[in-house]
Design brief:
By secondary structure, this protein is an alpha/beta fold. It contains 21 helices and 20 strands. The longest helix has 35 residues.
Length: 629
């Protein structure tokens, strides 16, 4: 394969902090590489170095000559006085520079340079730049090309920056958190686009479905070194686990050797100054290796949740709109104890507004939210990073409490609690402004959880958090003895932590779906398929006025629609039937394993009989409702 990028022996440090040391890797033609590391390990710094936006201490970064490279920064910015289309001519790429060169030559009547410029314009198809810009912007759901930049949301700015990258059709694209601030529709569009295109990628993202479906190569920065995995995210997980197991075994062997060497060191003091010095040196190396604790530095989020009563909140006839934009219209909902709700929808459909109404930060036009007396909210907002940058990390947390109750009789000091959140002592006494974006997010999460809430409201909690932190946060939320509402565009995260969804479709249309995100997408695709088939039926019926009695009866059945409760029951049945099928399969496997005692075998036999009976009952009811769904 043709090499597009080669990084050799690269080292980068900030003062005494070494981010990575003597790392080497390459990106070949057709490789789509995901870069994974903990927050603060230097992912964005590495991308900035490769893009030529940041210096480095030692090593080399070499691109293939004449390679077209595009770079999407994590937080793009544009001058405030320009509009959307002008922003596409504000990027620093070869075609924009060539267009500027052409306009300068025309304005200054430099005809001697013009012939060469025109040839380059033809080669790069620069004449089509504006048309391509509008085409890409339209695909990214931006249609008002004259809209001022300062009126755009973070998601819209990200899409314009993405358009700037895609317009030039680069051979290698460098992407830093491309899905941050993108809604689910745009995330899935980008995922599909990058999967189909024959381009090369180097990408940092916390979106694990995105990594799995787009990338065919994973690079991990771990302890200042590079580890490569020739496969997608799922392959990376398998191989990394094998590497961790091998390292643990190696550490155990070193510990056993250390015990023997320690005994020798104690028995042989007279040998230390002469010929055994090599062995003494080896002993200290072995000691260092044996004491190495190979952990992922995982966050320990086992924080006590305050008791929560049976009444959580009731939304009664809530209405809210801004001008002609309807957010909620006669919305009613009773939230159950220990419920874990996910909220999804495109940007601008009212997800964050709903949260602000619930928390009392905004008043509804009509109706009200009735909150239970025992409810104690913990709110993690998109805009919550309002720390004093000149404060030290430990002081930020100490301002909230001197200790943290873990709920099992154990109390941690602030320093101990921060250590659980992967803030080592030297980092605790560092200033907030020195933290990476992800570390600030982790600190913010720490300040929310340490207040012992029993109802967590998390608005886009996954942005800027590393995958290690996300894994542990997911486990915490699954076991959280309280309620939660999570607004997120991270499909993987939603699949793991929510019981059901509120889907905001815009114009106050809200779908209550019993299941996670993947189940909802499967249901939605099935619905779209049925609608298309129904449309085909109508078209055939218009051409064939004479129908059979059976088809007429079928059409009569189709005219009857499910009530709201029946539709909800139908959706819930689909989820319950799938769960029962899984349970039945598990029981069958256990019963046929040959490892069960007679008592356990009898118990499993009784259980599977009940499961089959329940499965038959729910399937029959599902079939009844499906005639009118």
């Amino acid at each position: 394969m043709v090499s597009y990028l080669q990084v050799d022996s690269l080292t980068k440090s900030f003062g005494d902090l070494v981010l990575f040391e003597n790392i080497s890797f390459g990106i070949a033609q057709g490789q789509k590489t995901g870069l994974i590391a903990k927050n603060g390990a230097g992912k964005t710094t590495l991308l900035n170095i490769i893009a030529g936006k940041e210096s480095y201490d030692e090593g080399m970064v070499v691109f293939r000559s004449d390679l077209r490279v595009g770079y999407l920064e994590q937080t793009p910015s544009f001058p405030q006085q320009i509009n959307v289309l002008q922003a596409c001519f504000h990027s620093d790429n070869e075609i924009v520079r060539l267009i500027a060169e052409y306009e300068k030559a025309i304005n200054n009547h430099q005809h001697t340079d013009l012939e060469n410029i025109l040839q380059r314009m033809d080669t790069l198809k620069a004449w089509d730049y504006e048309r391509k810009a509008k085409q890409i912007l339209s695909q990214l759901k931006i249609s008002d090309f004259d809209q001022p930049i300062d009126q755009l949301s973070g998601g819209q700015l990200k899409r314009i920056a993405l358009a700037n990258v895609l317009i030039t059709e680069p051979e290698l694209i460098i992407l830093d958190e491309p899905t941050n601030h993108l809604d689910l529709e745009m995330t899935e569009w980008l995922e599909d686009y990058l999967s189909r295109q024959s381009i090369s990628l180097l990408m940092v993202t916390h979106d694990r479905y995105f990594l799995d479906r787009v990338c065919n190569n994973i690079i991990e920065i771990d302890r200042k070194q590079i580890h490569q995995y020739k496969g997608n995210y799922n392959y990376y997980l398998e191989k990394r686990e094998e590497r961790m197991a091998a390292l643990t075994a190696e550490t155990d062997r070193a510990a056993n050797l250390l015990r023997k060497e320690l005994d020798w060191m104690r028995r042989q003091p007279q040998a230390r100054g002469t010929k055994a010095k090599y062995r003494i040196d080896a002993f200290y190396e072995l000691e260092k290796k044996a004491k190495q604790q190979w952990t992922d530095g995982q966050v320990n989020l086992s924080v006590k949740a305050t008791y929560i009563g049976s009444k959580i909140f009731e939304a009664s006839h809530v209405c809210k709109q801004f001008g002609d934009l309807k957010i909620l219209e006669d919305f009613n909902y009773t939230f159950a104890r220990y419920e874990k709700m996910g909220i999804i929808g495109n940007n601008g459909t009212g997800k964050s507004t709903f949260i602000k109404l619930l928390l009392g930060e905004m008043e509804p036009d009509n109706g009200h939210f009735d909150i239970g007396e025992t409810v104690r909210f913990g709110y993690y907002s998109q805009d919550g990073l309002q720390f004093d940058d000149r404060m030290k990390v430990i002081d930020v947390v100490q301002d909230i409490a001197e200790s943290v109750d873990l709920g099992d009789g154990t109390k941690l000091s602030v320093s101990q609690f921060l250590t659980h959140f992967m803030f080592e002592p030297e980092k605790q006494y560092s200033y907030v402004y020195k933290l990476s974006g992800g570390e600030k997010r982790r600190l913010y999460l720490c300040t929310v959880l340490m207040r012992n809430p029993n109802f967590l409201v998390l608005d886009e909690p996954t942005n800027d958090l590393d995958i290690v932190t996300l894994n542990v946060l997911e486990e915490y939320l699954k076991n959280f003895r309280g309620c939660s509402i999570i607004v997120s565009h991270d499909r993987y995260f939603m699949d793991k932590v929510v019981d059901h969804l509120l889907v905001f479709k815009g114009n106050a249309e809200i779908k209550d779906f019993p299941g996670n995100y993947t189940q909802y997408r499967e249901w939605e695709e099935a619905e779209q398929f049925v609608q298309k088939e129904n449309q085909k039926d109508k078209e055939r019926q218009s051409k064939e006025p004479t129908q059979t009695n059976a088809l007429q009866r079928n059409n009569e059945n189709k005219k009857k629609k499910l009530t709201f409760n029946e539709r909800r029951e139908f959706d819930q049945l689909e989820v319950e039937i799938a769960n029962l099928e899984k349970e039945k399969t598990t029981l069958e496997q256990e019963m046929s394993s040959g490892t069960l005692s007679n008592e356990n075998l009898l118990s499993k036999s009784e259980k599977i009989t009940k499961v089959i009976d329940e499965l038959d009952e729910k399937t029959m009811r599902w079939l009844e409702l499906s005639e009118f769904a």
